[in-house]
Amino acid sequence: MSPGFRPVLAEHLGDYGELLAHVLVADLLRYVGSHLESAEGSSGGGTEIQAILAVLDSGIVSGTDATVNAIAVSFCEHIETEPFFSRLRPLLGPGLRREVGDLNAR
Hints:
Blueprint: H1 6-16, H2 21-37, H3 46-62, H4 65-76, H5 85-88, H6 94-105
Helix pairs in contact: 2-4, 3-4, 3-6
């Protein structure tokens, strides 16, 4: 778990009383985006963002069906419309790049 994302997770659990994967992954996308749009993101996303993206890349490649679905739908789908996508795209691992490409081809 990314240390910086822990407060977001705590708020999520407080709001919903349980982990809702799709909502949490969408929150993670906003978290990543906010870091890429800030000064922290100016140097390639920072170590924390790179670590998050590595976990997501692994999850999209070898996660359970539920994990793959949450990442594909709530992180990758329509990601190219995000204002920070041009900074995010080069940081995506091969699994996430493939998923984004597959979604765009549909």
